[in-house]
Amino acid sequence: MAGAGGGGNDIQWCFSQVKGAVDDDVAEADIISTVEFNHSGELLATGDKGGRVVIFQQEQENKIQSLSRGEYNVYSTFQSHEPEFDYLKSLEIEEKINKIRWLPQKNAAQFLLSTNDKTIKLWKISERDKRPEGYNLKEEDGRYRDPSTVTTLRVPVLRPMDLMVEASPRRIFANAHTYHINSISSNSDYETYLSADDLRINLWHLEITDRSFNIVDIKPANMEELTEVITAAEFHPNSCNTFVYSSSKGTIRLCDMRASALCDRHSKLFEEPEDPSNRSFFSEIISSISDVKFSHSGRYMMTRDYLSVKIWDLNMENRPVETYQVHEYLRSKLCSLYENDCIFDKFECCWNGSDSVVMTGSYNNFFRMFDRNTKRDITLEASRENNKPRTVLKPRKVCASGKRKKDEISVDSLDFNKKILHTAWHPKENIIAVATTNNLYIFQDKVN
Amino acid sequence: MLVARLRFMLGRGLKRKLSDYEENMAGLSSAFDSSRNLPYSLKRQLVLNMCLTKLQTYKMVVEPNLHRSVLIANTVRQIQEEMRQESSQQPVNVCNGIAPNPLSYPGIDSSGISLHLPSGSNQQESNGCNSWSAEGPIENSLLMVSDDDMSSAISSILKDLDFMEDISPPTSLVPAGDDEPKSPESTCLKLEDDRQDLKGAECVFGSFEISNSTSYLKDLAIDDIFEDIDTSMYDSDFCVPPLMTPRPPSSATEETLKTFPSCNSSSANNIPICRTDLSELDHIMEILVGS
Q: What residues does the SERTA domain cover (chain B) (predicted)?
């Protein structure tokens, strides 16, 4: 797979589609909160703050023509979670979808896990394009016939009908988390998955909803001693006994479930010593890891903290093998970003299918890609201004200080309300989905 | 829902008062970022004030964000530890320069800023030190926080976050401060102004309950809050949301109708009347930005 951007053999990213309302006035419920491709890349799911899941399906026909890769069109929309009120604790439980994870496909139907702060649901998305006709005891409209009027018997036949996509909740995994769920991750054993909140991680079996195993618990006996919370967790893509979780202190712990039932003692601890020259009052806050993702190969993992993306080799714990600065120009603005709470924004990151390029979001609707082989990076913008299909995106540049060149943007004119927190990369092709506040952009590489 | 509506109404009321304060804070934080000449201790104080303000805001929310609270609490602890180390290393009469600190941050500006230590704290008092250097009104009006304030503030926040585990009526709006006896001065942030007499302890922090600031609600008759809420479904035995949890020490029936049950004179007996009055904070902010 080709690289991130720039000249030569590198990819040129083109606008493909944009989904969502055009207005600047964003309805709160439409704010996109998660984006995820399924394992084949044919389906793209988004979750929003209103608790809805929208699934897009890639058209198959155009792929043969190779003018462009197939477009993504709405396949299914359903309300996954509703707002709830916990009467016991007088708390509102938000219906916002925190994460969606697809399960590997086992039969004709598709399955995904979606979660809000407290409850995880397993949804089955299935197609129906035939229906039986010619029942003996029922009329076509469903009314029952009087058995005495039946004179002959016939076998119902299946006739084609318009495609109907049905989403039905198959399992509801509730009441296992006191704190807010931030991650779910399906295991490679195809039977279990984990869910993580601020202080605990639970292991579930997909078939069993009334109980789960607690595998990590970092809650101190005395809450006053709490100094660290869990921020993300993921199963290893190949080893079904291995998972990692990241913390607000910038550490990642790798745990092996074979070692003990409660994995409070890590097998490996990944932590980079702090750079003393970069020390500030906000050092700890910006070291908090907002996302952790294994590479497809399982050999590396990537973490995202406020200013950088780090790639870790699982065999080396004391420092990352690669570090990429996402928006270093913000380091001198940390106090303002702390004041307006932007410093707590949780950016996600993702790998491309071959693990050669990583991508993450930034402010001003910018997103960044880093090519691990060429060491080149590119900044692109998700904006409706470039909305002609096959328009190549122009690289953007932020001017940190000094003279601003033409086409550069100065740090002070960045819009911090336009943040790209969620991005996803097709597992096989160069197609990316980038979510701005309430719009979903799909970009593809230029196909000649 | 009753709780949601009250939160909404209180949030709006607070927002009106906080908006000016927030605007001033935004100005200060960009000053922090852009200015190289701000003395280190002033920067640290600014950050500390921002942290404490945020923590206070979170306290008023029914379910504060645990991740953010922990990060902010850690920042406060870190600053507190640094200040403690500095004060333990400095001689009592510090008037010129800052004593060398092994944890010193780069960019310390050691122009005669001294640390004026609040009385009543467990730090050494700068006895007889006319410690205000002639740096101008900003240093003279620094908001000082004692060790006890910060420790108790962090403790109370984290303890309250633990309430989520409890089945019993949540204690999130019951001030932790009521559970711990505190010395009068240690609950307060002190505003020092060289030009005026001490106005009295200003409690931004105190016991984290805005019930201590009766000024918020005094222009709202209690009945107004509830007049369009249908309470017919609540009988007298219903254990209503935390805002109305009956407080053991108070027996007056009207306590259960008050928005903040601990807003009563009996609980204030042991604590001097600390008024979290943001109009006075506005005044402080004006002084700080030198307007």
A: 40-87
